[in-house]
């Protein structure tokens, strides 16, 4: 009898193992070729019209469809590979054209079938392995410089390979906020929020919204620190300080950001324009930056905030002058001017910054500093 049970278990094991993962098929009804990205990892190196990914062991996957025809905008959705009871399924979606609109729609769902035989026009890949050739590399999509966003170490996986990062869409983020709110205690809410960060990227605006879900400053601060390295636009992260009520919390976050400053797009950080050229802060962002600095209760806080903003942005001489005018004392203005020099795009005009200083000794100090940077 014992041997019968062993034999039965042996026969059932392959069937049970199939229930622990699902499959996802996406095909283009219109014939538009595409690249499929799941959780930031590109699945096919050559654009296809029919892609099947097997052995998916997570219920949800952040999905991006990138079309070979760059005139077609990307499609970003969160796709589920389980049914409502949590059972992994074989799920199919289709890409459809309706006039000028292209969308990804649900097509079918069924039980996972062992030993699936794919049609000849289907590209098949086992998740975590690279299709039929056995190559284990995951490749970052690099088709078109306007879509190729390099976030330094932030845009790399554990093996330092580049992966595409993009923030949660509005619908998924709304669900994420609701999931955090459903926690009865701050510890549960924080754990939920950090769990969301583990597999998603947020914009600075989304981080601010999520901070507002928490009632206590300590919880907001802990989340804000955790979210910094999972933010797609760290150049704007200075704005997060505005969600805090106490200066001590603002200072804590600013010091954390300064100590853990990330790189964006280039080794030096900062906004970049066409042909990778540095771009100064736009008027709207600069106005917000000044308002954030003004919110500091003491010069030390204001200086720390300004330096944090400088670490991820570029400025014009006129903007540096405006920043200096936010401070009352020459010592503070001098610190700002020196910190801003390497982040100023029109250094040929930087001599004008000395006009913001009241004392000759301060002006001499700044001019000597500039001379020493050549």
Question: What does the model show?
Answer:
It is a single chain. The chain is of the alpha+beta class. It is built from 11 helices and 9 strands. It has a 5-stranded mixed beta sheet with strand order 8-7-1-4-9, with no helix packed on it. β7 and β8 (101-110) form a beta hairpin. It is elongated and about 80 Å long. The relative contact order is 0.07.
Protein traits:
alpha+beta, four-stranded antiparallel beta sheet, 374 residues, 11 helices
Query: Quick one: overall form?
Result: elongated
**Going across the major beta sheet, what is the strand order?**
8-7-1-4-9
Give the percentage of residues in beta strands: 15-25%
Mean pLDDT score, rounded?
80
Q: Helicity, in percent?
A: 25-40%
Number of distinct beta strands: 9
Low-confidence stretches: 5-18, 130-153, 157-162, 263-268, 272-276
Number of helices: 11
Give me the strand/helix succession. HEEEEEEEEEHHHHHHHHHH
| Major β-sheet profile | 5 strands, mixed
Instruction: Report the C-alpha radius of gyration, rounded.
Output: 26 Å
Structural category is alpha+beta
Distance between the termini: 87 Å
Quick rundown:
The protein has a domain at 22-153. Helices cover 35% and strands 16% of the residues.
SSE arrangement:
Blueprint: H1 2-18, E1 22-28, E2 34-38, E3 41-42, E4 50-56, E5 60-67, E6 75-80, E7 90-98, E8 101-110, E9 123-126, H2 170-181, H3 186-198, H4 204-211, H5 217-228, H6 247-259, H7 283-294, H8 299-310, H9 317-324, H10 330-341, H11 360-372
Parallel strand pairs: 1-7, 4-9
Antiparallel strand pairs: 1-4, 2-3, 2-5, 5-6, 7-8
Helix pairs in contact: 2-3, 3-5, 4-5, 5-6, 6-8, 7-8, 8-10, 9-10, 10-11
């Amino acid at each position: 009898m014992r041997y019968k049970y062993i034999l039965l278990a042996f026969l059932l094991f392959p069937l049970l193992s199939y229930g622990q993962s699902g499959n996802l098929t996406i095909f283009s009804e219109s014939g538009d070729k595409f690249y499929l990205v799941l959780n930031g990892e590109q699945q096919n190196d050559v654009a296809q019209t029919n892609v099947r990914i097997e052995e998916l062991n997570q219920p949800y996957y952040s999905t991006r469809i990138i079309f070979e025809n760059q005139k077609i905008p990307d499609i970003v959705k969160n796709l589920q590979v389980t049914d409502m009871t949590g059972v992994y399924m074989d799920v199919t979606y289709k890409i459809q054209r309706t006039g000028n609109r292209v969308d990804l729609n649900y097509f079918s769902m069924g039980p996972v079938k062992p030993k699936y035989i794919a049609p000849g026009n289907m590209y098949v890949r086992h998740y975590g392995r690279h299709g039929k050739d056995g190559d284990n590399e995951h490749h970052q999509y690099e088709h078109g410089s306007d879509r190729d966003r390099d976030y330094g170490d932030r845009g790399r996986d554990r093996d330092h390979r580049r992966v595409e990062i993009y923030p949660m869409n509005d619908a998924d983020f709304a669900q994420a906020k609701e999931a955090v709110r459903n926690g009865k205690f701050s510890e549960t809410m924080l754990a939920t929020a950090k769990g969301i960060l583990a597999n998603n990227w947020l914009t600075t605006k989304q981080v601010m919204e999520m901070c507002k879900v928490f009632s206590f400053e300590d919880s907001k601060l802990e989340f804000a620190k955790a979210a910094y390295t999972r933010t797609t636009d760290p150049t704007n992260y200075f704005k997060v300080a505005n969600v805090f009520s106490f200066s001590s919390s603002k200072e804590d976050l600013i010091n954390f950001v300064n100590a853990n400053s990330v790189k964006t797009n280039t080794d030096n950080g900062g906004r970049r324009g066409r042909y990778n050229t540095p771009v100064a802060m736009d008027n709207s962002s600069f106005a917000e930056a000044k308002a954030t600095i003004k919110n500091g209760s003491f010069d030390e806080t204001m200086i720390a905030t300004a330096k944090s903003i400088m670490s991820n942005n570029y400025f014009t001489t006129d903007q540096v002058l405006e920043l200096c005018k936010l401070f009352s004392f020459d010592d503070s203005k001098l610190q700002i001017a020196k910190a801003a020099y390497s982040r100023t795009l029109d250094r040929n005009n930087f001599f004008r910054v000395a006009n913001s200083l009241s004392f000759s000794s301060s002006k001499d100090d700044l001019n000597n500093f500039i001379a020493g940077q050549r």
